[in-house]
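Priority: medium. Attachment 1 of 2:
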């Protein structure tokens, strides 16, 4: 079987005037990362002074989830556009 590398879909980092950081990294994988049923690996981060305020990510064995401060919950991934919109809403709500 031939190995197919991941493809970078999006990568952005914004340093805001208030000292906060927004970072987005999304990869398309050759196959889903169990237990997710989609082919994306992502990390969306909003925080300041080394403290995470909002974070969306997925990982093998744990799947899609989001962090709001110290609270963590499952996240239902549907599309990249919806993921980005949900993240943006949580960042706005946090502020």
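Attachment 2 of 2:
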């Amino acid at each position: 079987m031939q190995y197919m590398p991941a493809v970078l879909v999006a990568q952005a980092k914004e340093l805001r005037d208030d000292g906060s950081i927004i970072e987005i990294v999304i990869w398309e994988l050759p196959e889903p990362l169990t237990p997710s049923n989609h082919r994306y690996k992502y990390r969306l981060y909003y925080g300041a002074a080394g403290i995470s305020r909002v974070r969306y990510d997925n990982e093998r064995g744990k799947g899609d989830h989001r962090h709001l401060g110290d609270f963590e919950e499952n996240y239902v991934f549907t599309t990249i556009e919806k993921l980005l919109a949900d993240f943006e809403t949580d960042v706005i709500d946090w502020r």
